[in-house]
């Protein structure tokens, strides 16, 4: 691990509070249940609960082992747990592909809604960006940036695609928030199920010999924990999404800004 990653990991460990007991599905895995028992214990939970547990487990793993933990500590229980819950989330969420029609990418949809006009508007956006990059005068550059921020591709195709995505988002939201029914998660004979079962059993066997230590002191205060929870909600809530801004990308950008601050601190270190 290079010096930057090590320092960044140390800072993150000091500033992100995650304990396994805060995630109910992770707690279910602590009880030494069989894989079948674990699946049955999820009755009444939702697909969103499972997906959120995967997100939480990834943050928990990063707390335990820092950035790059999945690569640098692949056999650690927290890392294995993170991988399992991520893959398990993909498994229970696989029907999502049936709820996304992909109609907006078809030739029929594009022809019906003047896709060529949409491309012309996108060209305007790109040309405006090039103007900003080439402009040397600060005041003119600021004006161009304001124009860029206000730009909206309101072509017929873009509006029709937004309407389609909004309609599909409602169905996806219903799917994610519907409770898991008894017998819904059973052995379907697939390779994916067998792999999940093997991963689950490996996590449980590793837990028998490597106790994951609880954090004695939380890395963040309650307000910061609530902020993380709100950020996750915004990222997964289709009603909060706009076509031009992806909440998850906004969260990632904020995380990147933190890393830049870390980098600036490193530059001041005298070796």
Describe this structure in words.
- This protein has helices at residues 3-15, 24-28, 35-41, 47-65, 69-72, 77-92, 107-112, 115-134, 138-150, 156-177, 191-209, 222-236, 247-267.
- The protein has 13 helices and no strands.
- α1 crosses α13 (247-267), α6 (77-92) runs antiparallel to α11 and α8 runs antiparallel to α9 (138-150).
- Helix content is 66%, strand content 0%.
- It has 2 domains: 3-98 and 179-267, no CATH class; 103-169.
- With 271 residues, the protein is an all-alpha fold.
- It is flat and about 65 Å long.
List the helices and strands and how they pair.
Blueprint: H1 3-15, H2 24-28, H3 35-41, H4 47-65, H5 69-72, H6 77-92, H7 107-112, H8 115-134, H9 138-150, H10 156-177, H11 191-209, H12 222-236, H13 247-267
- List low-pLDDT spans: 3-22, 209-220, 239-243
Tell me the structural class.
mainly alpha
Order of helices and strands: HHHHHHHHHHHHH
Helix content, binned percent: 55-70%
Cα end-to-end separation = 18 Å
Label this structure with key terms.
single chain, 271 residues, mainly alpha, 13 helices, 66% helix, flat
Please sum up the structure shown.
With 271 residues, the chain is mostly helical. Helix content is 66%, strand content 0%. The protein has 13 helices and no strands.
């Amino acid at each position: 691990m290079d010096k930057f990653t090590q320092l960044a990991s140390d800072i993150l460990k000091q500033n992100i509070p995650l304990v396994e007991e805060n995630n109910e599905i992770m707690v279910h895995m602590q009880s030494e249940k069989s894989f079948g028992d674990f699946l049955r214990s999820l009755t009444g939970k939702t697909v969103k609960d499972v997906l959120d547990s995967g997100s939480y487990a990834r943050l928990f793993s990063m707390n335990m082992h820092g950035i790059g933990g999945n690569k640098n500590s692949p056999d650690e229980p927290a890392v294995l747990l993170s991988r399992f819950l991520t893959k398990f989330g993909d498994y229970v969420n696989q029907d999502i592909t049936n709820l996304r029609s992909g109609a907006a990418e078809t030739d029929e949809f594009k022809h019906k809604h003047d896709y060529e006009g949409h491309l012309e508007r996108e060209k305007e956006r790109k040309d405006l960006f090039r103007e900003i990059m080439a402009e040397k005068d600060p005041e003119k550059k600021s004006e161009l940036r304001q124009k860029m921020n206000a730009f909206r591709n309101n072509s017929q195709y873009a509006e029709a695609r937004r309407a389609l995505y909004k309609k599909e988002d409602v169905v996806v939201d219903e799917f994610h928030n519907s409770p898991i029914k008894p017998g819904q998660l059973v052995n379907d004979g697939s390779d994916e199920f067998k792999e999940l079962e093997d991963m689950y059993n490996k996590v449980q066997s590793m837990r028998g010999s490597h106790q994951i230590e609880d954090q004695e002191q939380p890395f963040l205060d309650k307000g910061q924990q609530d902020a993380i929870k709100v950020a996750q909600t915004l990222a997964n809530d289709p009603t909060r999404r706009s076509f031009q801004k992806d909440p998850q990308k906004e969260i990632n950008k904020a995380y990147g800004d933190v890393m830049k601050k870390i980098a600036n601190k490193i530059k001041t270190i005298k070796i």
